[in-house]
Request: fold
Amino acid sequence: LFICEKLFRYLIADGVTPPKSLLEQPAQLMRQSDLQIMPTLKLMLGSNLFQSSWARQRKIKSPAHLIVGLMRGLKATSNSHRIAEGIREIGQGLFYPPTVKGWAGGRDWINSSTLLGRANLIRDLVRDPDTKFDQAGLRDYLKRIKADRPGAAIDLYQRLMMVTALPERTRQTLIESFPKFGKDNESRHRGLLHAVASQPTFQLG
Reply:
């Protein structure tokens, strides 16, 4: 049970102690498999727990998950060295964990400094004209998939990269603020993406 509880916290929910009833089946499988991890991992990764209330909004995205998830979700490309350096600056130097255990993760990813650092890194990447979205500007990409209205763009970001929707008041405020995000539609859309990706709910997986 101890090992399965560790796997549960690592894969499904940060800082949560699940009831033993959720862990009995994977623990039994581990015993039957002579303590092999792979069968238990397959069982847990294929379970409905990932769609349950146990998993929803219970993981804080690591810096890599945050940035790479945003880039992949929108088919974006940018300077990979700059991305790696930015991720390192907000606490996750890839291939250089602080200990053999790796990164503590969970709430350790979030504090007043790293939260600002996350928002700044997203701003730098999104506002960079060298960052392309499916080999085009963000507005052209959104127009191609019929999501170039501010509300439709927010809905797209929520569907692709967020586990919960923004509060309706926040969503409406972002839509109303769209003209203030830049001098043209391209810069406005990039500013809107930065604003959405800086929201607390965007940090959750």
